[in-house]
Design brief:
Shape: globular
Radius of gyration: 24 Å
Number of helices: 7
Structural class: mainly beta
Helix content: under 10%
CATH class: Mainly Beta
Distance between the termini: 56 Å
Number of strands: 30
Largest sheet: 24 strands, antiparallel
CATH architecture: Beta Barrel
Strand content: over 45%
Length: 488
């Protein structure tokens, strides 16, 4: 495995200018997150204490998997590696090699998954009125590729345990991916109800799809193990949709669609900016994109195929676009027009967005101002994300449970997120904000700690907003604002 392939997978979003991490726990939980709070909860801007927020640029990336890892490595180790990344000796079936870094497979019975989430926000704006109304508009590019409950033979050790010419049954499974841009409009309203506040928010998004596809093993697919890492497909029950060629110009979409987010935030015995406890629930990415240009929807339902596949058949031609290249190779070998078993059902198909339910709780543990009236306080934030499963043609979201202690003030903040992904991988991170700039990672160890490198996470946001805070009145006085300058 060449270093460039590994790094291309990790940084695919960066090379395509479609980047931003999935959870961004250190950024989106901050009451000064502004437009970014809408992605935690569409009603979350109620707690934003300023009158407007302008995001200039945000970027980041999230990659996770529990299939394989690079041994004794960090992201910096891989980036600076000048040699080859090769398999551990136990996986070297032919001529032994001594690479500069080794990769290995997790040899356990846990459900296998991988996910790549990349988003990038362009200049976007949020405005809040004195009467409790908030409006937001944003534009961003997103890429989401995922596979969950993958077949057991993705574990190389399980595959090697089979004898030559033995039949291997492939369990039902699916993978899906989508790259798209979206333009979103958000509206929320904070209403006072007997010393409590409730905020309701709605986001409507217009979507443009660029690349997408899915592959589902729907039935009794069987393969036979052959010599020299080759296999013979004995039977296949597969449904697939794929955009078959990259566009000549990146501005040209292959399809379009709509999606919506909806959320509610409740603040008992407080105001949106002066509270001890708030909690909320929201639905995200309820929608789909219909891909119609250079798109094919095919199915295979056939026994007695006896088609041989070798490593060379699945070679990656474009190392700068690994996932698209691999998908096109799969399409050519399994479901192209030359394969009589592959039935063309339509020249269009839909891909569902990574729909999910998010529930959060935010608790202010103590007020700790460093400067007079800077609003400094210590918070504890909890987040639970549950994917909403759709059909085979869905780019699935990760399951997530996270606790994020943070210190927050007008001028700076620091957060230490601790998160459990898909109930298997425990990560810890760090996020720092200095006025208008936020930099963070929900998986900080992957950058510096030399261990089992199986993913990466990074995000950054640069914005501008008023230097003066607008204090919101108490619950008895409504949501009126009175401008007050900070004092040192």
């Amino acid at each position: 495995m060449n270093k460039s392939i590994v790094w291309s997978i990790i940084l695919m979003g960066l090379t395509q200018q479609q980047v931003c991490a999935q959870a961004q726990l250190g950024l989106r939980t901050d009451n000064y997150a502004g437009i970014h709070s809408l992605f935690l909860n569409p009603a979350g801007a109620a707690s934003y204490p300023l009158s407007w927020d302008l995001n200039l640029f945000s970027t980041g990336l999230s990659v996770k998997n529990n299939i394989l890892f690079v041994k004794d490595a960090s992201l910096f180790t891989v980036k600076n590696n000048t040699g080859v990344i090769g398999p551990v000796p136990a996986l070297q079936l032919r001529t032994p090699i001594t690479p500069s870094l080794y990769y290995d497979f997790y040899n356990n019975n846990r459900p296998k998954f991988f996910s790549l989430v990349a988003e990038g926000m362009l200049p976007s704006f949020l405005m809040s009125s004195e009467s409790g109304h908030t409006w937001g508009i944003f534009a961003q590019a997103r890429t989401h590729v995922s596979g969950y409950d993958l077949p057991h033979i993705v574990n190389r050790y399980r595959y090697m345990s089979y004898a030559i010419d033995s039949t291997i049954h492939i369990e039902p499974s699916k993978v899906a991916g989508l790259a798209w841009t979206e333009l979103g409009l958000n509206y929320s309203y904070a209403l006072e109800l007997d010393k409590n506040y409730i905020s309701i928010g709605l986001t409507v998004k217009k979507l443009w799809g660029f690349q997408g596809g899915y592959l589902e093993n729907t039935g009794d697919t069987r393969i036979a193990k052959l010599l020299f890492d080759s296999i013979r497909i004995q039977s296949a029950f597969i449904e697939t949709g794929l955009t078959t060629s990259a566009q000549k110009t990146p501005e040209q979409p292959t399809g379009s669609g709509f999606s919506t987010d909806f959320g509610v935030v409740f603040i008992p015995n407080g105001t949106p900016t002066q509270y001890d406890l708030k909690w909320g629930a929201s639905l995200h990415d309820i929608g789909a994109i219909r891909l119609t240009d250079s798109a094919q929807w095919r199915s295979i339902s056939k026994n007695d195929i006896y088609k041989n596949i070798t490593n060379n058949d699945l070679a990656i031609n474009d190392k700068n676009n690994v996932i698209t290249s691999f998908g096109q190779q799969i399409n050519r070998k399994f479901v192209n027009a030359d394969n009589p078993a592959a039935i063309l059902k339509a020249r269009s198909f839909s891909v569902l967005l990574p729909a999910r339910l998010q529930i959060f709780v935010d608790y202010r543990m103590a007020a700790l101002p460093i400067f007079e009236d800077d609003g400094g306080a210590l918070y504890l934030h909890g987040l639970w994300v549950q994917p909403i499963r759709g059909g085979a043609n869905q780019a699935m979201s990760d399951a997530l449970a996270a606790i994020t202690p943070r210190y927050e003030s007008r001028w700076w903040s620091a957060a230490l997120p601790i998160s459990l992904h898909n109930w298997q991988q425990l990560h810890w991170g760090l996020s720092l904000r200095a006025l208008f700039l936020t930099i963070g990672s929900d998986n900080l160890a992957s950058w510096f700690y030399k261990g089992q490198l199986n993913g990466a996470d990074f995000y950054m946001a640069l914005k501008i907003n008023p230097l003066r805070i607008e204090k919101k009145a108490s619950a008895q006085g409504g949501r009126g604002k009175a401008t007050k300058c900070y004092k040192f």
